[in-house]
Fold these 4 entries.
Entry 1:
Amino acid sequence: FHRQYTGSGGIDAERVGNDPLAYMAAIEPFHDNVISVYVKSTKNSLKTIQGKRYILDVYGYPNENGEGPAHYIVCGPSPNKDVYFYKTNDLTHGLFAKWKVSDDAAARIAIADFDYDNVLSFATISYSVPGYYRSANPTINVFYNRLAQRKLRTNKEIQGIKQNHDLLFKVPRPNQALKHQTVAFITINGIILSLDIVPPYSSRHANNTTYIKVLSSRIMWIDSSTELHQLVNHSCAFLCKKKSISPLAIHSDNNRIKTGSEEAL
């Protein structure tokens, strides 16, 4: 096939450690089918940057118009309309792990911390262009990152103190908690009781076996039983009487609860 396009259909730079431009990933050429990365040599200076090109994948062949299946790439497992996630294993030798994460077509990919857990996730919008290619069911989808291993802080934000026969907890002031933290303090008949802090605009795992008593602020989750998948707000004042110990059953579609502008205890 004659290749009538040049350049790149999508390119992005990626930070590794303290290097903001450790490598670049690209689809080559424009409207084509080659996924490649350019890795800098460790001996480079700012004025003489040189890199080595590694081909990660070749998807199919160009059509009669010289167009390949690959359209968009960003850096963060039907070959013509899937989304794949590549993760660096050995940058020096151009080795990457690969996961297919979606069977749907993606015209654009956006990177953001969509569920406020301090880890980047990504969202896609289906390819649907009249007269060119139209997805059967065009949608916007969010794919949450559950691969990252977050580093734990060495200094505990929650501190437990036993005073005579009472157990007291010292917690951060509102809006000063830096990350989700949990302290388990008693197990009764196989049920673990813990005190949790969820910082503002953050989330934590909570499936249908989790029961929560909100002591401070408000938590939210998505519940498909509500009309139009509306966001449902829940707090201790919503279902629990004052000074009661009634727990709140969690029925979250994505097994996550999240906070708004204030931390939750």
Note: The helical segments are 236-239.
Entry 2:
Amino acid sequence: MDRGFWEQAGAIAWPLTIALVLGLLVHRALLALSRRADAHAATRMRARITQVIALPAAVALPLIFLSVAVRAVPLPEDWLDRIQHWLGVGTLLCFTWLVVRAIGAIERRILRQNPVEVADNLEARRIQTQTRVLSRIAQGVAILAGVSIALMTFPAIRQIGTTLLASAGIIGLVAGIAAKPVFGNLIAGLQIAVAQPIRLDDVVIVQGEWGRIEEIDSTYVVVRIWDERRLVVPLQWFIENPFENWTRTTSQLLGTAFLWLDYRTPMAEVRKALQHICETDERWDGRVCVAQITDSDQSTLQVRLLVSARNSGDLFDLRCAVRERMIEFLNASHPYALPRVRVARAIRAAGDSESRQAGPREIGEQTTSPGAEDVNDADVARAAAQPE
């Protein structure tokens, strides 16, 4: 009996031991290969392929070795079935992992071939937006399919699925209502990938905030606000709500700087100065440089300085520079063109005060007091003759 026990133990141990040792060696070798591939993935295609395959294979191959070894082990049939089932589930999940990594590798390659760090990046942003959104959706579908197939290999889960199909009406309605936000965002992602109301690096105004599209995920969009805050917005929001996209068709923009000047302002000199300012500023793209009087009131003119730039960042800086340099020019060459409202009010106020003080002295002989009409010359003479 003891001899039979040890023989059976040996028959079980040696196939499993060989499989474990071989699997461990392969696992470590593939991990080392993956680390080496990471160092060269940016420049070599073979390294990128190795990087994608190595990690899933480092887990899947030991499982396959164990699955082969288990078939040579004298164990009860139900034990063998359970072990084979779990090993098969693990291998299936590793394959799903491999598919997800392959999709990610294809996405990264397309993004590298279409950088957005160039001056005219409209086409690159379009390709990057489509690639990112479709990649996230494809990865989500792959994960969902892999997990679903793995779960359906369990008889209990398969039975639950059959029960759900039998009562698909009510449960489908409840599930549809519960999953509406998720599926709504997925459908919105497809709409954005096709219609592209927004793209990566677009300049947008969302809920009163100015920012750039920094990330487009499968269910949400990250907007980088000008002060480095991040605004996370569901994808579906961009389909259902109006928003401003400053770079929908081109990154070129027009911007204004307003000045309030005196009526004596020489507009011809202002236009010459504006043209000189734009021509000497590298942020001006050479398209628009206009000075116009757009409004007036009782004391000042509103002058609009309209300029253009290649992108929103350059435009903001150019507007500030134009406003600052134009004020310096007017202050140095035409100071009378600057508003003089405060000085005029001060002179007017001083003149009114002097009039009030001088009035009684200048017209005093024409002014009478109450009761003066009853005093005659005799009364005045008597008052003067009385001793003090």
Note: The first helix runs from residue 2 to 40.
Entry 3:
Amino acid sequence: MITYFAIGIGFLVVVAVVVGIVDAAQAARWRRIARERRERWEARQRRLHAYSGRSGFTEYDDYDEEDED
């Protein structure tokens, strides 16, 4: 019984190490993908809002009384 427990704990440790290594190896790729997506989103936002004719101020009051502390 104790052997199964030790094997289970050992398996979890090995899985944690493997996941950490794989995550570290893929982190740069995911950061690049996120940067590209953000650049596309920012370009799309600039296109959508470039000729809206608005002053840049919202038409509603975004004051929130709960923020006062």
Note: Helices lie at 2-49.
Entry 4:
Amino acid sequence: MSSINQEIEEEKQRLEFIKKYMQVVIDTAETNKEQFMEKMKDIFKDEDWVESAGYSQLLTSASFYQLSRSELESLIKALPKPYFARVDFTSREAGGMEKLYFGKTSLFQRDNQEQLIIDWRSPIANLYYEGRLGEVSYTSEGETYDGTISLKRQFIIEDGELLDIRDIDVTTVDELLQESLAGSSANRLTEIVATIQEEQNQIIRADLNKPIIVQGAAGSGKTTIALHRISYFLYHYKDVFQPEQLLILAPSFLFLDYISEALPELGVEKVRQMTFQGYVEEVLGKKIKLTEDTKLRDILKDQQFVHISSIKGSSLFQGVLDHYVEEIKTSLMVHEDFRVDKFKLYTAKQFNHLLYNEYTYLPLYKRIEKLKKVLQNQVRLNKDKMLKKVVQHYEVRIDRALNWKGDEKKRKQYISLALDKKEARINDLKMEIKKAVQDYMSYFDKRDIWTLYKELYSDPDRLVQYSDHKLSKKEALELCESSQNIFSKKKYELEDLGPILYLYAKIYGVKPEKKAKNVVIDEAQDYSFLQLQGLKTALETDMFTLVGDLAQGIHSYRGITDWQEVRKSIFPRAIYRELKKSYRTTVEIMNEANQLLKRLSTSFPEVEPIIRHGKPPVFLEITSDEEWAEQMSNQVRKLKEEKFNTFAIITKTEEDAAIVNSILKQHTELDLYLLEETTSIPKDKIVIVPSYLAKGLEFDAVFAVTYNEVYSDNHEIDIKLLYVVMTRALHRLILMGKQKRAFIL
């Protein structure tokens, strides 16, 4: 037997043992001890090496293996593919070579804690992700460990069977990565752990105590990096944080559905997931009716509209809101002392000092609530004293009357009247004590967020003043008129959500159960400055992971155009990283997409595709509906023959998507599905989706279709939309339209 065949045989034997040991551990966790020993004997009855003392001891230890439910679930999921790599490492300190096997979860021998499989998130796993053959080091808990790697091996395991092994040396291309990229998009999100690259690994493992901003090219793995960073975070802080304390904000429900399969694989399925609108609604406890978001169409007709739309999400508008909050705060200053009847319990000066100096760490209305408790406490402390003083006052008068030597009848009348007055006075005081705080606090008219927000747009001159005259009178007037017009329909714009959240957090504060300790935002370039500031203020944390691509900023009229302002003003502690390599598309497709980047006014570096070649993009002309439908059917059939599984027809707009869907359903037998923002991506169907909803998604083959709508190089949004469309394709890109110039070609 050759050396390589012998090694494969040894690896197969080890895999068989690990699978059986894992099964024993799993069964042990689900059955009682009496059943365990019989089951262990039965599982290993056909294996000669089961008689060895070492293996018997190892297997017996499984009977005492204590597993949490989540650990058990992780082990069950890992059973078909227990590990994906091996590193032979000789530690300089300890000496002796160790064979380290890495997988999605850990497995160890109970009696001596020897690790049979090491979790990919452990510090020593860096030897696999970043280590080279020869001298290496890794860091764990602040200590650096030196040593030598003599072997790096990758395993291809499917359904518990070892199909192949790949040894990596200094000059070897990562064949596992190449095969992964050449495969279908169907399981790419769930299978990335084995192919994480060095620059991706560094972001995943970057300082967990700092926020991080990742500017990543299309196909650079931003989404998977973000999800794996969550998994890495929970692994290292599992004793401190619960998954429910983390929050993923995605651009749409469609995108949340797309990543849903990856979350259980990473053990982060319990992490809260929602859209930005969903989070604002959760905080406010109310569904918000938004106007139809037609701005992508509208801004093509009126560029002034772009500027007006951008104001509400800007840092300038944060200044407007801050001035507004200050005015509201000033209006709450009290000028009267707090009295119960004639008793002064708290001066206006004392009250204002607490409001404006002592309680500044609280949102405005939370301060009012705290002050209410202060007054209630004062009443409680002074209640008996006040009643006692009233009683004493009347008792003195009664004593005088009792000692009066005058007319007996008048004396009795006086005493009777005094007793009646005493009782009435005490009853009045008791009533006053009950309602004094409520009466005093009624001065603070607690308006709801909707009233406060609408009032902001009631006076253009005030907006100009709040902006420190950075807004012109014309801009302020347009803002007020357009906003009031929308409010009159009992609706809001998407651009209103950022200011509303920020204002709510500053004035009312957010309930603890609505907050999160750590936040991940995908497609962060489409968030406005004020959306991010609002989230940070509401959540009271700066522990954010922001991933995005400014080149795909199709909502740049309201979103981020430069990470610098975000880093400077919102997340000054943030780590900043750039990813320029694309692992999604072929060289041929990426070369075409890079040409589009050159047409943008903002300079973006060319994306570097990983060397994977394929057929260049082709253009097919639409001459008639029938001929086009036939072309589409033929293309899909050929692509399926090449074993491609996932297909998308991507149009510029939803109107074109509806037309394309109608035509193809009329003239073909293709199994089509028109995607909308709130729908799920079906399996085994050809999806039709407008360009702006396709962000973050990927498909084996993409048909970019222009039917009525075309892309124009006169508008940057068109260039960015087309860039998004082209970079959704893993292997094939087919352009279909009535004319080639519809694709800026």
Note: The domain at 587-743 is CATH 3.40.50.300 (Rossmann fold).
